[in-house]
Amino acid sequence: MKQDVRVNGFHETDTGNHFRTAMKNSIKACLMASVLATGFGVASTEHAAAQGLFQRLFNPENHRRQQERQKQEQLRKKAATVKVSAPRYLNYTPDKWKVVSLAPLSEKKTAEIKPAGASVEPADTTTVERDIVPVEPVVLTNFDRARPALKELSLTVLPEVGEALIAYYREHPDFVWVKDGQATPKAEQMRKAMAATGKFALVPEDYFVAPPAVSGLDAAEKEAALMRFEMELSAAAMTYVLDATRGRVDPNRISQYHDLPRHDVDLVGALSDLEKAADVPEELAGHQPQNEHFRKLTAELERLKSEDEDAGQIVIAPGTFLKAGKSSPEMKNIVAAIAKNGSQDLLTVHAETLSAYDDSDLYSPELIALVKAFQKEADLTPDGIVGKNTINALVGETNAAKIAKVELAMERSRWIPEELGARKVFINQAAFTATYTAPGEDPLSMRVVVGKKSNQTNFFYDQIEVVEYNPYWGVPYSIIVNEMLPKLARDPSYLDRAGYEVTTPRGRKVSSASVDWYAVAAKQQSINVRQYPGRSNALGAVKILFPNEHHIYMHDTPSKNLFNKDVRAFSHGCIRLHDPQGMAAAVLGKSKDYVASRIAEGQNEQEQVTGDIPVYVSYFTAWPEQEGSGIAYYSDIYDRDRHLLKAIGKTEAAREKARNAS
Predict the structure, then answer these.
(1) Which intervals hold domain Peptidoglycan binding-like (predicted)?
(2) Which of 162, 320, 387, 416 has a 20 to 30 Å separation from 201 between CA atoms?
């Protein structure tokens, strides 16, 4: 039988428990004594420290939870202060004009004349006969005789023009526009051609050169006047070629949303071609973009400028909103607008309805069908409801507004390659459309969703390289910081539960709760976040990559309902496709069934795109219609027209100042 042993009045089995209790009491007493010894005026921080010590010693779990709450509170406060800024619009700086001296051309450079063979002195000092090349007399041309005038001549020009002007006349030291003491007929052709540049959305004053006034001048003064005319006209021609080829505005100085390298232009070669040309106006016009869309824009500009501004203008009362079966006094204006702006096909199909209409206010079933057909043609939701978007399409832009949009489209056309490619994808953000074209194939056009105004899609072009099936979504740093960080501050395990994978740069998976997200936001720590493939994946079942620094690509989306909207600016900048499998099949040269079968395998796989297929992620508020010969007009969803107009205004002011300084 086990004996009941007592030690100092306690059971031996209870000794350990009583000992620990005694120790706790002893520590509490010591701490209390310490507090009392320092008086009741101790600082709150010391009291908090004592409390923290109590918690760590006697309630570690509660202490851990309290620390976690404090950590999250700190993260919430820090998260509110950290944001990744979107690209921004810049204070546009126009191209600088500078004064270029033509003095380097004022002297004729001739090679030093030497014997054909080198002089040799033999060891025996015997004279050796040498062949001497006869020195031909230097013949001075009219240009050479006028060279002294260049010593004091300077022009205010674009730097590229100044360099090319000196380079050309060093290689071709002769007059191009002057002969027999006067301007040539070719010079007059050039002046007239540059005076008509308004038809190409350029400013004739930028290229104006007055004819040489030589009457009553002595010989030296006449040579100086003719030389100035020669140089000014060549400089004007080079400026025109530069503007026609690359545009007057550098888009990359408008905003950080533009990523469009300016075209290199061979100005020396261009002036040489003009000198040889039999038809100067034709040669000059050949420097404009020689493609179908630019020709259509040019024709539209000519048509608009020839029209009376107020001719046939139809007005629909602001705020008009009309549904089926309702009546409105604006009904006759709605019908008149369709009759004026509808396509010939639409007017033919609905000819009976239009001829039978008797100016009634009733929105009848026949008129509903007419409106739906117009909405479909205008790429609006064909619901028959006449609201703001339908009215804008019906009334259209004023003549002046259309001219401005066409001229801006012509300027933007000079920023992209002249040859867009046989196979290509052309995305127009303002139209919310993407179109694949290839020789011998029907165009594949579809609705797209582009970036929100706060997350605008960039304007650039690249090459399509890869189609990815069942893609992961690699979350961009900006979305992690701006959108996920506040959620993580409230719920550290948010990413783990929401179907995201969090890894270190070396690929080791970690819990989202274990990451110092503020350090990630401050770029003191690197972490990768991606969403697993699946139905809820933001990229849907397929994405089409054209690797670029903006992290923009085309992809599927689970948010199909957004394609039913007329204004489709909802993404973070990427291009969401209404028919992603159709686009993937087109760029791969495969069938949609093939693409669907690859997706059905459920594997995350990539397939290389063969051949050159450029993609243009563009922005045009006026652009030729896919079907037909007309020009379609679109709303300026990002206000980029306004910023381009400001840049053009600054450019014209700088050029006027340069002209006045000459």
Answers:
(1) 361-394
(2) 162
